[in-house]
Every structure is written in C-alpha cells, then in structure tokens.
Amino acid sequence: MTKATAVIWVKRDARLNDNACLVEAERLQLNVLPFFCFEPSVLTANDSSDMHIQAQWQAINGLRQGLRKMGSDIVIAHGEVIEKLTKLYERIPFNYLFSHEEIGNSITFLRDRAVAKWCHDRGITYREFPQSSVKRGGVNRDKLQQLWRSRIADIQPLQIPRIAQPEELRAMASKTAFPKLPQFTTKHLWQPVSETDAKATLADFLTVRSRWYRGGISSPNTAFTAGSRLSVHLAWGTITARQIWHAVRSRLADLDPNDPLYSRWKQSLNAFLSRLHWRDHFTQRLESEPDLEFRSLHPCYRDTPYENDERLHKAWREGCTGYPLVDAVMRCLAATGFVNFRMRAMVVSFACHVLHLDWRLIHPHLARVFRDYDPGIHLNQLQMQAGVVGWNAIRVYNPAKQLADWDADCKFVKRWLPELKEQTAEQILNDELLPCYPSRVVPFAERAKKMTDQLYGIRKTAEAKMATKAVYLTHGSRKKGTSKRPKRIKRPAPPPSPTLFDNLDDNPV
Q: What are phi and psi of 314, to 5 degrees?
C-alpha cells in the first residue's frame, strides 16, 4: 500500500452519511479501515443490557452491509479496545485513528482518554470529530446558540465519500465476525436500529406521523406512532441531529399553506425542532460535568436523605407497586424499550418522591430498559425529575391523575397488566380492590409530601440559594422564554394508523 491508512473507530456512529471521519479520510486521500470493538467493560457495565447489545449489533451489521455494497468492509473485534488496537497496529501500522466524539458514561470517558494516550505514545494522529453542537471539554453557555448554528443549522449533512480500501485490508476485515448473541424473547417488540431504518423512520415521521406529534406524544397509547421514534437512532448514531434538522426544515418549507392541516403540521414540526435543540443542551451538561453520573449538578442535594428500601426498589423494577399506570409503564419498558417522555418522567418522579429511592439507585435499571439510552439525556432528566437540579419546579406526577388524563379507557394498562384485563376501566380508575393485583406498596400523598418538604427545605437555605445562582450561571438555559410553561393539552389527537411500525402490532398502542 502506497497510501497512509486511517482506522475509523466506530462507536455510537454506525452510518455512512454525515460521517466526518470518512470525509476527512477522503480529503487526505487515505486508505480506510473501519473498526468496531465489542468491549466487555462497556457491555457488562451496570447501565448496559442485552437490549443495547442487540441494537448495536443491528447498527453495525447494517453499516457492514452498506460498506460491502461499496466494495469495503469493517473489522469486528471483541475485547478491550486498546488491546485490539495494539494487535491491529502490529499487523497494519496505521498512521491515523479517527472517531466521532462520544459523550457517554464514566467508562467510555476514561477509555477515550486512554486511547488518546495510546495514540500519542505511538505517534499516531488521533482526531475526534463532533457529531453534534456539544463542545468538547465544556463551553460558555452563551456560545451554545452560536455552536448550534455553526455545526447544525448552517452546514448541510455530509455526503457519503468515496472509500479507498485496498484488497488486503478488505480481505482482512471480511474474515472478522460478530460475537454470538444471546437469544432474545421479546426482540420482535424492539425498534430496529440501522441507518436504513433511521432514514425510513424519518421519512415516515415527516410525511405521515408528525401530523399528530403535538398532543399525540403525551399519551402512552398514541406516542408509539405520533412520536418521531428517532431517539433510538440518535442514541446509537445511525442518524445525526444535523440530518434531521435539515430534513424537518425542508419539510416545513414544502408545506402548503392552503392545506386545511397546515397549522397542525407546522406546530408539530416546530415543537419537534425545539426538542431536538434541547437534546444538545442537556448533553452539554454531561460533557461539562463528567461526574454527573455519580452526584447531582447542584451541590446541596448530594446528600439528600433517601430510604432506598430494596423491597420498594424491586416492586418498582418489576412493575408490582399497586399503582396500575406505574406498573404498566415499567413492564412496557422491559418488553419494548420505549415509552413516551411523560411516562418516563412519571416513573422517575414516583420512584424518588413516593418510594424515596435515590436517582442514582434507579439509574442503572432505567438505562438498561431504555433502548434509546443516551447518558447525556438520561442522567440530566433523572436529576430534573428527582428535583435535585435546584431551579426547576419539583414535579410530583400523581399516577391516578395521569391515568385518568392519558389512559382513561385503561387500554394501555390492560395491555401490560394482563391480570387487570377482566376489570372495567371504572374499577381501575376508582382504585377498587382488584383481585390478582397487589395493593399499593406505600400511600401516595403523605410520602410525596414528606420528600418534597425535604427538597424545598434544602432549596430555601441560604447556602442552596447561593449555589443555585452559580450552577444556573454555568448550566442554565440562555433561551428566552423557556421558563414559561407551555399551554397544557388535555387530550391527545386521534392516533395515526400504524405505518412503519407494523411490527409492533402485537402491542396495540
């Protein structure tokens, strides 16, 4: 080989489109060797699960198929990444290692630093490319809008480059295989993850399902189709926020003002863009505070007294708390890996404020059952719903009220709690004594009051008020008007007919 070689280390970025690593390799006229490593330290971490492993397997398999169509291939390794990179380097002394920035847990944070040192010690040029508006190492919050414009709004997604891969590299890569996966009993309910699926999901959302987005995402019944369903693809990198942003903006420009549904389409798509923008806002916090996994953003809440009763923790995990909507959500998550944001917020609020469980205790289980687990979003939302950020309203979701508001016919509850199938919606809503269903593990009102009194007690101290100002100055939103609560929509819009997600028909939501 006369050209220098760049190893493209694939992590949570299994795609060909909008791939800065491949584009840079083409610009420098380098031979390309994509490389992915199933790392035991990552796969066995307390926030990892078979659901995640299978999602990443799908994503990488899709990438391999795309590469092979272009006459290339990817090395598949199984082991700790530095060990595998060392063996690869002994066989092919590559000159460059490219990867996209990953804002993950503490394990991947330390691993990335170790890889950078490994490259430095060998004289290998190691470059990380941003795939969002998140600034490596932290950034002044006043600069976030500027970063969003320069990295997302003002730059079109990168096109697939020509990949130069000599036959000897392709032959070596093709001999590597995926490790054997365990059997999954509910994988037919898991959303498929690949670049092809991401494109189809985005197209389906823009042309069909986004019409019901505003209003439809609040109900656990309609959110399966009214929601974008792009979070899993953003989490595993089979699509980028930049691709989505420009596709949505293009769709907005193409809307017909004479269409009777013009206003609904426009409001829904703009609401979606706002949430897409917030995604990077929260992820930036984790990048700026890498220990967010272990302690609250606000220093005065780091020793909040929780009971952490394992009996209650187990009941919550298994969906056996005696609160029908909470239990249905937890069982739905275990089977499908998805529920809407409101229901996620409710089960976190319930665990922290009613069961008195530390957000750090419930973090691993929720991470494992979220197929779209993204540490930057997950850890921030855990702390917000637990009420330990300091300036956000402390929200206690009443499961009985949420059930009446969003699942009044108990369709969702009956789907996931088969022991209640024979009960009427009225019986479930009125909390009658239900046979074959556990009684409530704790009373709601007094337990919620006890915890919120403690949280507000901390907030009112002089020390907390001073700390809140400092934390907000560093991490608070600079977007005007974000403190104003949006008008509440009491009922979701009529659900759309399932299109892309017909494979979820076994789950009639």
A: -65, -45
Angle between helices 262-288 and 241-254 (to 10 degrees): 160
Taking the C-alpha atoms of residue 72 and residue 82, their distance in angstroms, rounded to an integer, is: 24
Residue whose entry in the numeric block shows the structure tokens 């990443």: 56
Looking at the structure, do residues 105 and 141 belong to the same domain, yes or no? no
How far apart CA 47 and CA 363 sit, in angstroms, is 8
Query: Do the Cβ atoms of 406 and 223 come closer than 8 Å?
Result: no
**Domain CATH for 385:** 1.10.579.10
> Does 334 reside within a domain?
yes
pLDDT one-digit tens code per residue, 162-173: 999 999 999 999
**φ, ψ (nearest 5 deg) of residue 99:** -155, 165
Residue 276's CATH number: 1.25.40.80
Task: Give the number of C-alpha atoms closer than 13 A to the C-alpha of residue 226, restricted to the C-beta side.
Answer: 26
Residue 79 CA to residue 86 CA, distance in Å, equals 11
Q: What single-letter DSSP state applies at residue 488? A: P
- C-alpha 339/C-alpha 327 separation (Å) is 12
The side-by-side arrangement of strands in the sheet containing 5-10 is 75-78, 31-38, 5-10, 96-100, 125-129
Return the CATH number at 106.
3.40.50.620
Same domain, 449 and 345: yes
- Looking at the structure, tell me whether residues 70 and 118 fall in a common domain: yes
Distance in angstroms (rounded) separating the CA atoms of residues 202 and 501: 12
Q: How many domains does the chain have?
A: 3
Q: Does 30 map to a domain?
A: yes
* Cβ neighbours, 10 Å, residue 88: 19
Domain assignment present for 77: yes
Kindly report, residue by residue over 255-298, the tens digit of the pLDDT: 999 999 999 999 999 999 999 988 998 899 899 888 999 999 99
Per DSSP, 361 falls in state: H
In a shared domain, residues 123 and 268: no
**Tens-place pLDDT, residues 359-389:** 999 999 999 999 999 999 999 999 999 999 9
**Same domain, residue pair 145 and 120:** no
Q: Would you say residue 497 has pLDDT above 50? A: no
3 state DSSP class of 97:
strand
166 assigned to some structural domain: no
Single-letter residue type at 212: W
CB 380 within 8 A of CB 286: yes
| Domain limits for position 40 | 5-129
Q: Which two tokens stand for residue 298?
A: 């606000």
CA–CA separation, 392 and 428 (whole Å): 32
Alpha carbon separation from 439 to 315, 318, 348, 420, 442 (Å, rounded):
11, 14, 20, 13, 9
Same domain? For 339 and 300 the reply is: yes
| pLDDT tens column, 222-255 | 999 999 999 999 999 999 999 999 999 999 999 9
Asked whether residue 333 falls in the same domain as residue 263, the answer is no
Residues 448 and 314 in one domain: yes
